[in-house]
Design goal:
Layout lengths: L2 H7 L4 E6 L6 H9 L13 H5 L10 E8 L4 E3 L5 E2 L10 H19 L5 E4 L7 H8 L3 E2 L5 E2 L7 E8 L28 H5 L5 E3 L2 E2 L5 H6 L7 H6 L3 E3 L3 H4 L9 E4 L4 H6 L2 H8 L8 H13 L1
Parallel strand pairs: 3-12, 4-11
Antiparallel strand pairs: 1-2, 2-8, 5-8, 6-7, 9-10
The protein binds iron/sulfur cluster (2 copies).
The site of one iron/sulfur cluster has 12 residues, from helix 7 and helix 9.
C-alpha cells in the first residue's frame, strides 16, 4: 500500500509534498514577529532560523509531507448553552497525541520504500511554518482568516508534518496532492466574511492576525486577567473562538452538537483532581482548569 492510501486509511483528508526549502510565507512571518503581533508568545521569536529551514529540525531533510486530519464540525457545548472551540474535542484524547501517533505509523511505512531514510513527525511540536508548507504542497490554500483551507473539506483540520530525508516522488488520490504540485491559488476572491465577523478586529487584514486581540489566543495562551472587553466579545464560547471559520463558505453549516461538557456552575466548582481525571488526557488540559474558570468569569462579567 502506498503512502497516500495509508494516509487515507488512517483518516487523513489531505496529504501534500513539498521540497524542504524556505517556506513561502517566511518573510510575512518575520514581519509579523517584528511588528510584535504575537501577544505573550515570546517563544515564537526564538527560532526564526529553524522555521526558515526544516533541515535544522532534521539534518538532511529533503521532503516535507504535510497532512490534514479532520475534527468534528459540531461545536462541543455545555447543557446550559456555552461552548468551546471545535478543535478541543473534549471527549477525545488530545489531538497532539492522537494525530501524532497516526503520523508516526505513516512515517513507518516510508521505511518500506526508503529503509535508510530518517523521519521526524511534528504536530504543533516543533517550530515549523506548517500552513506554509501545506500551501506549498498544493493540498490547500491559506485563507484571509489565516487558516489552511482544503477545498472540498474546509478548515476544520489539524495539521501534521513528516519531515524525511527521503526525496519522495509523491502519490495522488482524492483530496491528496499530486507529487510536488504547484501551490494552490488563493480561492477567497472578494469574500471578506471572516474579516467582517471577527468580534475583536484581530484580523487586521488578509492573513494579518494581531494575536493579542484574538480570543483564541487570549482564552488559551494568555496568562493573567482578561480585559473585560474580551469577555463581552466571547459571546458564550469559554475556550477558543471559531467565528472566522464558522462564517467561511468552505466550511459546513453550523449544526448543534449534543451537550458533551458539564455546565459552567459545575466547572466553576470543579477541583483540580476531578478536572485531571476527566480532562487530563484531552486538549482542555493545555489551558487547564484555572484558565477555563477565568474565561467563564470573563463571559459572566
Ligand atoms: S479566532 Fe475569533 S478573535 Fe481570533 S481572529 Fe478568528 S474570529 Fe477573530
Ligand atoms: S471567510 Fe471568505 S475571506 Fe475568509 S477565509 Fe473563508 S473564503 Fe476566505
Amino acid at each position: 500500500m502506498n503512502l497516500v492510501d495509508h494516509a487515507k486509511e488512517s483518516g487523513f483528508v489531505a496529504l501534500g509534498l513539498s521540497l524542504s526549502k524556505k517556506p513561502p510565507f517566511y518573510h510575512a512571518f518575520c514581519q509579523w514577529i517584528d511588528a510584535n503581533k504575537f501577544g505573550q508568545m515570546a517563544w515564537i521569536k526564538r527560532h526564526r532560523d529553524l522555521r526558515e529551514n526544516p533541515g535544522t529540525l532534521l539534518p538532511g531533510c529533503q521532503t516535507v509531507i504535510s497532512l490534514a486530519y479532520p475534527y468534528s464540525p459540531l461545536k462541543p457545548r455545555t447543557p446550559d448553552g456555552f461552548t468551546v472551540a471545535r478543535y478541543c474535542e473534549p471527549q477525545r484524547k488530545d489531538y497532539h497525541t492522537r494525530v501524532g501517533e497516526k503520523a508516526k505509523r505513516l512515517a513507518l511505512t516510508l521505511k518500506e520504500s526508503y529503509p535508510d531514510a530518517k523521519s521526524r513527525v511534528c504536530v504543533d511540536s516543533a517550530p515549523i511554518l506548517e500552513r506554509s508548507f501545506a500551501h506549498r504542497s498544493g493540498m490547500g490554500f491559506v485563507g484571509k482568516n489565516n487558516m489552511l483551507i482544503v477545498p472540498g473539506h474546509g478548515s476544520y483540520v489539524f495539521l501534521a508534518e513528516i519531515l524525511t530525508t527521503a526525496l519522495l516522488p509523491g502519490g495522488q488520490s482524492e483530496h491528496m496532492a499530486e507529487p510536488m504540485k504547484e501551490p494552490m491559488k488563493d480561492q477567497c476572491g472578494n469574500c471578506t466574511r471572516c474579516l467582517d465577523a471577527c468580534p475583536t478586529g484581530a484580523l487586521e487584514g488578509s492573513r494579518r492576525l494581531n494575536a493579542s486581540r484574538c480570543l483564541s489566543y487570549l482564552t488559551v495562551e494568555h496568562a493573567g486577567d482578561l480585559d473585560p472587553k474580551a469577555g463581552k466579545r466571547m459571546d458564550r464560547c469559554i475556550l477558543g473562538c471559531d467565528v472566522c471559520q464558522e462564517v467561511c463558505p468552505f466550511n459546513p453549516a453550523e449544526k448543534a452538537g449534543k451537550a458533551s461538557l458539564p455546565g459552567i456552575t459545575e466547572f466553576l466548582k470543579m477541583d483540580e483532581g476531578t478536572f485531571k481525571m476527566r480532562y487530563g488526557q484531552t486538549a482542555l488540559s493545555r489551558p487547564g482548569l484555572q484558565r477555563i474558570k477565568r474565561n467563564i468569569k470573563a463571559v459572566l462579567t
